[in-house]
From TrEMBL:
Pfam family, one: Aldo_ket_red
Native species: Streptomyces meridianus
InterPro entries, per database record: AKR2_Oxidoreductase, NAD(P)_OxRdtase_dom_sf, NADP_OxRdtase_dom
UniProt superkingdom: Bacteria
Transmembrane feature ranges: none
Protein name: Aldo/keto reductase
Amino acid sequence: MALDRLAEVAAPAARVGFGLAAVGRPGYITLGRDRDLPDDRTVDAMRERAYALLDAAYAGGVRYLDAARSYGRSEEFLADWLSSRPDAGDVVVGSKWGYAYKAGWRVDTDVHEVKDHSLAAYERQRAETAELLGSRLDLYQIHSVTPDSPALTDRALHERLARLAGEGVTVGLTTSGPAQADAIRAALGVAVGGEPLFRAVQATYNLLETSAGPALAEAHGAGLTVIVKEAVANGRLASAGQEPAELAACAAESGTGCDAVALAAVLAQPWAGVVLSGAATTGQLASNLAAASLVLDEEHLARLAALAEKPAVYWRHRSALPWQ
């Protein structure tokens, strides 16, 4: 499995991945993006920013790169960067299908993306991804599965995904919402021909939203690679002026940024394989990567554990974040 290659990379930063959600399109819901991204958010300007971040990530030891069909031109930017960097043949590339980008390169729009987990959507988006990433695609995930998603019960879709796995692409899913644990456990029961279909799961987990933790531990125990997204809670745990006081105190004591502490707390989970950085600037990325070598003691971890919110509260707050 392609994701197994990550275990062969000695650099600690290999456990930190880089996601292009914020730089593959002109707007996103992470706090501070109005300041972090260039005022002129043309395609060329965003491509240049993406290249700079990918260069910095690779130089810093990152070996997992994350895109999606709904992240604007993220797959295009990533494909072009890969073509320009023949020395980066050791990176593992993941992307997702199930959401279509609908914003038309605008931030001021009512609809940014539309969800569709049907077999027809898979076939269409798989062809689009293949045209851009070709044989460089290692992991293809169903985007934002919830317990009621038809992707968990559509046998025709499962058969088609199993064929993709037979072609050498790892099949996975990402989850979202307050019932992530239910979706993960349902996915663990999906099999084709007696073999588990999903070999990777990507979920939201951070100091404020820990409810998926037990299910992610079960997934890890079942042999799935666990990838964590939104480890800084869309900026709430980074340097956006909204950091909890206890997090700020731990950061001051450790001599790092709040973002590094938040990421390190996730990396400390025994089931966490790769934790994604969603940095929009090279400075943020450098700060995020400091987490790879930061070891938090039990006292710090216990203090930080008290920050967890009820899932319904966390996801209600997240759904209210503006695109910027």
